[in-house]
Amino acid sequence: AQKQTSDVLSPLRVHFESQRGNLYSGTGFSQKGFELQERPQEEHDPDSQLTVSWYFHASIDLKHRLEFFYKDQLKAPGGNSTSGSSTWGHAGYATRKTPLKSLVSGWLKILPKPE
User: Taken in order 63, 11, 88, 96, is the CA torsion positive or negative?
Assistant: First the structure.
């Protein structure tokens, strides 16, 4: 697993974590925080799937998108993602059907909000 905190958007700090396997089955959000609901260990499939989770604590409304880049893959692998937000910030995770070692980087892109 790799953990990283980015201060590029300071004072907004974005936390990322990449791990082997399909780790989560859902999320829970409340006014106080969030919870990632873990799958049973036997369903993780760590040799052929990966999970990236992220969160930031800030009471701002911003539109964003995650993008992933992989070694030697022209087509992005399948997978799913979920995210949510509350007054404290935003959190989510994405799974991909490819080993963690194939992931080169993940980007959080801030997008313009429609007027």
Answer: positive
